[in-house]
């Protein structure tokens, strides 16, 4: 049996042998029996498999971030109302929710690497298609496909991050999500600049080129899965009978509802209920997302030192405290500080839930992740609308306290985070 990171034959010999026997094996591997346990190191001690999955998280976040500045451009070109645009955004979410279980099943059957290669390439031209298609019905189809494949890519790349974690025997999920946050920030920040400079089509071309660069750099380095093809073929593709994926999904759901609430309603709360200027009100989500990105890059080391369960419990305590401070703050700047504090806590709750979902005994990583991802992202896609309805009637201070209370459920289920920890072989 191979020790970790040990090769039986030189990597070049194995690659040549594999290429001669199976010319398409790099895209559709038939077996993992010839695959070495790790990809070769890059300069400066970087691991190719970790760089690849980080680039894919960056590209996925960049595409999502680039969608935000596309919305006003699309409304102006088509002459549509906010209501119609809201329906298009719903189509995006519907595509994601429907495609995630499909990609999860394919990942469970064929492994994350080939599925990730395919979906990450398919998604690249879809935002450009949204920019150039002339008819509304065509754009609806393109948005549905974009939502579907960007969501499917999310499942596959999280499964691949789990595979890299297993190879390295250490946590990397938080930093992967940090790259996703960084990509979203770059996509949203550059998107407005590129759109004002080059127009809608120029923006679409530029973002496609930038995302394609990251994806095609990553493709040759994507790690193959820890399990063999024979083991994957024997795994059932039905919905799990074990309650564990659904309980971890509840953890993810109640971790992501606060993120969606701050994203959609923090600025409105600061402006309408605390009389903050719009320039100050916008700092609520900015402070939250900034601390969240920083903590995601620090989160792997914290989790490695403290363990996933303790890290999750401390994170939940930070999140609850920050949301209560935001809800009860006497001034806008105190509320902004509360949201920043909440970002410190929420940052690593989702990565831990995803790592746990990919390591449930008896459940294929792709299946477990698809369940948890769908349940988690429904918190961002659906909860803010319900919260807006409630907030209109009660005000948003009680809403933020209520959302903080939801995290108590995550805290109660935090023992399930033990599945995210690595045990010695």
Automatic annotation (TrEMBL):
Matching PROSITE patterns: MFS
Its membrane topology: Multi-pass membrane protein
Main localization category: membrane
UniProt-recorded Gene Ontology molecular function terms: transmembrane transporter activity
Ranges annotated as spanning the membrane: 51-68, 88-108, 115-133, 139-157, 178-198, 204-223, 244-266, 278-298, 310-329, 335-354, 366-390, 396-417
Gene Ontology terms: cellular component: membrane
Protein name in the entry: MFS transporter
Record key words, sorted: Membrane, Transmembrane, Transmembrane helix
Domain Major facilitator superfamily (MFS) profile: 49-422
Highest taxon of the lineage: Bacteria
Subcellular location: Membrane
